[in-house]
Write a structure and sequence with these properties.
single chain, 122 residues, mainly alpha, 4 helices, elongated
Length: 122
């Protein structure tokens, strides 16, 4: 795997921290408690995805292989869909996005499962 995946994971972690701070300081007066909780969930799962990609990158160093790339790509796609839709919902976006959100969660789960499979093959 390339340094691009490591950079992507680090960037997601940084964006997560920025999103959390923005929610705590910039949105606290603008969102109700439920919407703020959604925002915090989006920021937290963004961190989980970023850390997951960092883990995949580090784990792939000794062995490499396609499964690690699949794991990282699944985590990236999943966190974009999950955190993106939850953040949009928090800001008053269309409720139909709630039907899309679980697909992001499934992609993140798949990413961690594939990481586990890749580790077993090592």
């Amino acid at each position: 795997m390339t340094g691009a995946w490591l950079a992507a994971g680090a960037l997601l972690c940084a964006i997560s921290i920025l999103a959390g701070a923005f929610g705590a300081h910039g949105l606290r007066e603008r969102l109700d408690a439920d919407a703020l909780a959604l925002w915090e969930t989006a920021a937290r799962y963004l961190m989980y995805g970023g850390l997951g990609i960092l883990l995949v990158t580090v784990a792939s160093r000794p062995a490499g292989g396609r499964l690690y790339v699949v794991a990282a790509a699944s985590l990236l796609a999943g966190v974009v869909v999950f955190s993106g839709t939850v953040a949009i919902l928090a800001l008053g976006g269309p409720r139909w996005l709630g039907a899309v959100t679980p697909l992001g969660g499934l992609l993140m789960i798949a990413g961690f499962v594939v990481l586990g499979l890749a580790a077993l093959r090592f």
